[in-house]
């Protein structure tokens, strides 16, 4: 494990969705990198573009999406230029995607075992059923499920169990990079904590690189060592976990941290961010947060702020910090 | 202070089964006694299947209880005449979970509010519409009058739904998971509208939530909190007391299950939870029909035989009740380092 080198690098990625009314600028000029064996959380609200980014990385963008420019480099290879056939060689073996369990990601007509068996058959080739049963039950054991689950159909499983099955399945070929879409949303709190501790445990054992998206700030805080904040299609801040929660830089990040309702903060001081997120059909000019920002200046309305590096590995896109680079 | 709603030993049984097959009985609520007093804030917290929504629907009169009695403004609901029932029902309004489907998409904001006002309000309808929009912080009101729900964000829609509930000048609002579908930065603004109405108009509010941190935020400084599981209220009391001195193992579990935000405490929190629940359900043959047993018995590490015989809410201190036979045997509650509910006094 070579910790510290960059396994994934996203450079100037811009994605739009074509709709009848025009184009939705879902992700604009996104650049960030993910260190090997780290856990990075992209946080943002619905419509902030966080799913668009991981869909671009996993090549699962919907048909009306267009990548305008940018690169997604995985160990130097630009994933966006790969053909579907070439990408298939990386999928599962190098990059595994854990979708949200709530979105019925499992095939209702297949047992859990068939999911394991067919995935293997599709990616690697033939395998004896008996051999696969042994492999699959080991993986299920790893996520705290009994081998009895192998012959169950998805409808027989609870939400928490489905999420465990999906996580077990993603480890089938020991991938280097795990991409998780809202791993704990839509679960009851107790289930949620169990999945959180499962992810931490698997991380400790296998040290995969994990990139997850979540709308839940406390969840991101408990899991990730690096936090990336999305707002209206822009990535506005990139920080280490500790720095982000102790001293968020971007006014939007500050607002988010202050609007968190949980027992580790002073609930008497909770406040919301005024205003509403903009439409991405006609996003505000300049910094997209300026209509809601208490510190907005003239330049914020005109120009998109550049990435301003505050300390190594920490940056913010906000004109308030522009003085720091001069 | 008068009671708006009172439930006495209410149970709700849903029956399901095939036409000719055996019928299964599902106890959504068992022996719930609860009253809502004028101007009160109550949060009801529980996981899915705990009966919290059924309870809310019975309070609002959408469902009839299978057993037990419901009083509205001191009168038995069963004995009210039809016209009286209609009149009182309007005084108890319900705000639904999903603001994307609870508003009529073909009506403007104005007509969503004006139509019910013509029925319930004697003064100038147009003026009242503007007043209501201001109350729920949809300002400037003129900007919103001709908008349709699809022009509005989730947070705005939910505030419009609150304004609509206010058209009948209710004494009680029941909000069923009002912010679970709303983005995090806007949640507080919706909750604060409820808190503001409660303070300024003395409007009683019952909020249903699966998130105990949110439930506490809504009821801190004097509100009440009910913790439900398996159709029963397991712990109930003044919110501040209940959070600083949680007594039921399930309440403690819920408090520990809420993610905090510091990475260094994640494992501590997750380990501490294991004291209060069994990862595998304990197999026990109970839970038949009207069983009085503690519903948490199957997951409770402290459960003993007497938990099967029955539990009921008992007073442990003024305004704090717990349904647990084992509270004297539980370990003492030492809040973990990250746990610091409310430090500043809330001034609004």
Shape of chain B: globular
Q: Count of helical segments of chain A?
A: 10
Structural class of chain A: alpha/beta
| Largest sheet data of chain B | 8 strands, mixed
Largest sheet of chain A: 8 strands, mixed
Radius of gyration of chain A: 21 Å
Instruction: Return the structural class of chain B.
Output: alpha/beta
Question: How many strands of chain A?
Answer: 12
Q: Helix and strand succession of chain B?
A: EEEHEEHEHHHHEHEHEEHHHHEE
General description of the model:
The complex is a heterodimer of chains A (326) and B (348). By secondary structure, chain A is an alpha/beta fold. Chain A is 30% helix and 25% strand. Chain A has helices at 50-57, 84-90, 112-123, 129-142, 159-170, 189-206, 217-223, 241-246, 251-259, 298-302, and strands at 6-19, 22-35, 39-43, 65-74, 77-78, 95-98, 177-181, 209-214, 226-231, 234-240, 308-311, 314-316. In chain A, the strands form 2 sheets. An 8-stranded mixed beta sheet of chain A has the order 6-7-8-3-9-10-12-11, sandwiched between helices. A 4-stranded antiparallel beta sheet of chain A has the order 2-1-4-5. In chain A, a hairpin with a 2-residue loop joins strand 1 and strand 2. In chain A, helix 4 packs across helix 5 (159-170). Chain A is globular, with a radius of gyration of 21 Å. The mean pLDDT of chain A is 92. With 348 residues, chain B is of the alpha/beta class. Chain B is built from 12 helices and 12 strands. Chain B has helices at residues 52-60, 82-89, 109-120, 125-135, 141-145, 154-166, 184-201, 212-219, 239-244, 249-257, 266-273, 306-309, and strands at residues 3-17, 23-37, 41-45, 67-72, 75-76, 92-95, 172-176, 204-209, 224-229, 232-238, 314-317, 320-322. In chain B, the strands form 2 sheets. In chain B, strands 6-7-8-3-9-10-12-11 form an 8-stranded mixed beta sheet, with helices on both faces. In chain B, a hairpin with a 5-residue loop joins strand 1 and strand 2. The longest helix of chain B has 18 residues, at 184-201. Chain B starts with a strand and ends in a 26-residue tail after the last strand.
